[in-house]
Structure formats: structure tokens, C-alpha cells
Design goal:
Elements lengths: L5 H14 L5 E5 L2 H11 L5 E5 L6 H15 L4 E2 L7 E2 L13 E4 L2 E4 L2 E3 L11 H8 L12 E4 L16 H11 L4 E4 L4 E2 L6 H4 L3 H14 L6 H15 L2
Parallel strand pairs: 1-2, 5-9
Antiparallel strand pairs: 3-8, 4-10, 5-8, 6-7
Helix pairs in contact: 7-8
Amino acid sequence: MKVADSETLSKIKEIYSKYSKEYGFLISMQTADEAIFYKNYFLNKKNVFVIHSEKKLSRTAHWEYVAKKSKEIALFETFSYYFSGDEINLENFPLLEKKSSIYINDYFISSWENIKENAGHEEDLYSVSIIRKNLSLGKPLLAPLQKIVFTEEMANEINFNADYTYVCDQLMIFDFIKKGKKIEIIKSPFYKLNENKRNHQNTMTITEILKQQLYLYKHVNCYTGVPMIAIRTLLKYYIFKK
């Protein structure tokens, strides 16, 4: 997180009070002063760690820092990201057998009462062909990052392309697939984005968003999906955003 705030602390306190015996929590801030805000509350509490980087990091560098730092200070089997402003329901967090390296939730949540599968296929494993098929329909199965669960050994391999921050999570997962990492589809909707608080997206121009989308589709060799994703992106930016 960039800035400490009482609303986020309240959310974390509520989640922690219910699930501290089952899950560990790693809270990462950009500065020592911001970290103190959380350390003061979680001092001497179990299964929660508050860290800060030694210098200010870019958005994606901070994500990488969190993953790599987790290996140094905690023992865990799986991990996923939580970003300030979003909603999480750990009652639905999946119990995994660690047969795969990465687990991707196949759903889209506009509200907890309106949970939809992103793609209705029944395959257990993601493959390049499945990714391309659904991207051709404009469906970003590999995003957002927060719906993805990684196993512990993946922490040191987390690496985002800082030149394409809008699609860097999808680029990384696709490259993991090409490298032979086992990636499994799960149906455990536990994460809901706050569509009204997409700070990074809201600072980008439509030209930059389209440029990065086109780079992604070129990277995965899915040229047939370019018209669909361009239309969906324009509609989302100019109509649904209002």
C-alpha cells in the first residue's frame, strides 16, 4: 500500500480477527512512517508482519518486493495479493493440494450477488490454446492479479514488466505457462475489485491502455482478438466508466 489509512486498517483488523489462526498477513508500506501506523496496532500479534521498503518503489517493483520479502520472514504454502480498497471473502478462499504452481480463479465479480464465470470451459489446466481462445473473445482470464493464488516456490519468480503496467500480470502468467509451470483453474470467488478506486487505471489515457492491450495480444499471438478487446476497452472507458 502507498498510504496508511484508518478505513483499510479497519478492514484488515476485521479480517485478522476472524482468520488469524488460518492465514498469515503481510502488510507492506512504502515508508517507515507509513508502516508505523499498522505496527502500532499489530504489535505482538501472531501471524501478521508489517514491512516497508528501504526506498520508494514503483508500483510493480513493490509487488515484487512483497513476494520476495515474504520468503525471508514467514513460512507459508500459498499466497495471493490484496490491494487497498478491494473486498476479500476468506470463507471462499480455496483449500489447495499444491499439485500446481499457480491457481487462477475463473470468474468475474461485479457484486457478491452477481458472480459470473469468466469462461465456461471444464478443463482443469490452463494452456496456451485456452488463453488465446478466450482472449479472442475479449476475456482477460489472467487478470486481475488479486484473484490468482501462487504456491510458495513461485515467490522468487514473481517479475513484472514495468513498461506495461496495465497488462503486466497477464504477461507474467502467460510466460509462466510457456515455461511449463502447471497452472490450474479453480472456481473459488474470494476477491472483488473496487471498480471505483482503480487509481492506476484512472491515471492512464485511453491511448496508453489500448497500446498496452495490443502489446499483450501480440505477445500471446492472438491477433484475431484485437478488434474485440479494442471495442470492449473503448466501451469500458467511455461508457461504463461514467
